[in-house]
Amino acid sequence: MAFRDGSTQHDRRFKVKQSYWIAGGVLVAVVLIVLFVPGVAESIEGRLLSFLAGLGR
Q1: Which of 12, 22, 31, 42 has an alpha carbon 20 to 30 Å from 48's alpha carbon atom?
Q2: How many CB atoms lie within 10 A of CB 44?
Q3: What is the DSSP string of 20-32?
Q4: Cα of 1 vs its chain's centroid, Å
């Protein structure tokens, strides 16, 4: 009978935290790009509206 030493659970928690940090970093980067790069907000808005219009058909 093998007993677990808990290291696998710790590794899993670390990977989940790492994923949250990466997702948070990407989110912050996207927000900064939308705020400070001209034309990006309009492009995203146009794509989103066309996507929603396609769903409405």
Answers
A1: 22
A2: 13
A3: HHHHHHHHHHHHH
A4: 41
